[in-house]
Amino acid sequence: MLSGQFSQRLFTKLPPRVCVPLKNIVSEEFLRAGHIFLGFTKCGRYVLSYTSDCGEDDDFSFYTYHLYWWEFNLHSRLKQVHHVRLFAGEEIYSDLYLTVCEWPNDHSKIVIFGFNTRSSSSVLMNLMMSDENNRDIYITIASMPPPKPCSHCCPVPSATTIRTGSGECLEHGYVLNSRYQVVYPFPTFQPAFQLKKDQVILLNTSYSLVACGISLCPGKQGQTSQILYTKRAALSSQASAAFSPTSSASASSLPLGSPESRLPPSRPAPVPSSPSQSQAAVRAREFAADLFRRAQGGGGGGGGGKENEGQTEKRKADGGEKEAARVPGDKGINVESGREEEEDSKERREEDRRTSLPHASTSAGSRSLPQCPEQVMSPASSSSSPSSPPTPSSSQEAGPSEPGYVNYSRLQYCLQQPGAAEQHAGGYEDDKVQLPFTVTDLKGRNLQLVTGPHSGQSVCVEQLTLDFEYLINEVIRSDAAWAPQFCSFSDYDVVILEVCPETNTVMINIGLLLLAFSNSDEEHCRPNTYHSNLQVSWDLNTGVCCTVGVGDLTEVKGQTSGSVWSSYRKSCVNTVMKWLVPESSSRYINRMTNEALHKGSSLQVLADVDRCTWIVL
């Protein structure tokens, strides 16, 4: 009988004409082999599955993961056409949460995130994960298989359905792997923002925000595939008319903020005598530049490090460590010595600015928000003193100088040349400056780093790194009304609020736990613990950050750091929801996870909503 109301059981079953049972299209042997099916790719052509193998001894074996591409046709069985090993070279000692993502419009590659879990009872995991404040993040970026058989991938016809791996094809046969470690408060996973710009992935490493651009260089004369820091590349190309190509290329390889990168135009960098010496010199310059940059960031009222619930800890990554600042509740702070140190640090900063930027002039502009702070500004301008009067800035007079809180690197990799010895991953690696990527082919062989002119295809890996602690000091000193009260910050949490792929701008919110003196005279003898936040926009074209807003100081009384960060992240979610603009159906970020498996359940269907197709599990 028609009652005018929908039945609760009206849509409990899918229409049978678009449903395909998985057991009808996959051989039983693959299901017994442990294939976990994740879902359809964005194009609808492939279904993805993965396997995890921890050997016969579950307690003392490392996990290995493989991802498989299956070609889907509605009226035939699935055909395996491609597979890669995930997180190759890493010793993974726990079952991982996996998330497979695709960019909005870049269908040439795919990114896989792996997060270790803390709930496992593995003996090996408990031995390896002694520090509960650290978590490992694994990343694999792999090229997609060709939609049709490729003559370069499979030069010899074969009976197998696998379309890749038997030939020498870079376009369909490269894999990037990386691992980094995050600390408390662990950064939020935001694939909707991290992959919003095609070919770029934003990674929050707890110390820095790294924009990684991965592209395939065509290798044709005069064509480049630079995605990040494009305005600096334009400046470099303009400067090449005045400098020799060799000296210009050498200068462009210098890390940002290094003393060598700030040389005036009349003093070009020395030319290395050989490629091997050139690589060694670059690594030495990077190491020296990192020390120089860290030394500059050490001033400014005592920058801080991370801590967890009132305990001092050290941030560790690949053997490197950076000691954190004193905890907020530390009662042993000597106020007088702190003030003397602050005055000394100011004098040192003034001296550093005078010696490193001899021709600098203050950027013109008002102090109203939104604005670029005086110290956080474009590479074409810099400031010799916060109190200097505004004067016009000219890049021709001062020369381009990069912001000290960013670092840029660009490396190209090609297939191994016949007869050449295989290159091993290594060299200068500091994940506070850049993430250590390994780039291989489908057989696990390392690709060759391009060190000179190259006419063939190559994989280009760009990294633009934003140093959080350096930036925090700069913004507080330049734009915080409470800067005179500021003593030091002890912990911070960074959340991405928005990414604009058209303007290449990233909006971030930096939550801070800090020590500051009270405004009241009777409480001025001892600093108190406060919470505040900084809104900053980051331009991926120039590397420049601009201050959008600085929050007020809110005193933290009787709250744990966990409750502070929980409230802070809720406020970030509210801000994101206010700014939310629905994306078109073609610009969404496809995302597949094995979350159901970790919850002890299984997906019921694999749905391709765009093509109204379902696979029933």
Low-confidence segments, ≥5 residues, pLDDT <50? Answer: 123-130, 240-277, 298-302, 307-342, 348-399
Instruction: Walk across the major sheet and give the strand order.
Output: 17-9-8-7-6-25
The total of beta strands comes to 27
* Secondary structure: helix percent: 10-25%
Structural class call reads alpha+beta
Largest sheet: 6 strands, antiparallel
Number of helices: 12
Question: What is the residue-mean pLDDT, rounded to a whole number?
Answer: 74
- Distance between the terminal alpha carbons, to the nearest Å? 34 Å
Rg, nearest Å: 27 Å
Q: Roughly what fraction of the amino acids lie in strands?
A: 25-35%
Structure report:
- The radius of gyration is 27 Å and the shape is globular.
- Helix 7 packs across helix 10.
- The two termini are 34 Å apart.
- The chain contains twelve helices and 27 strands.
- It has 617 residues and is of the alpha+beta class.
- The strands form seven sheets. Strands 17-9-8-7-6-25 form a six-stranded antiparallel sheet. Strands 10-11-19-16-18 form a five-stranded antiparallel sheet. Strands 20, 21, 22, 23 and 24 form a five-stranded antiparallel sheet that branches.
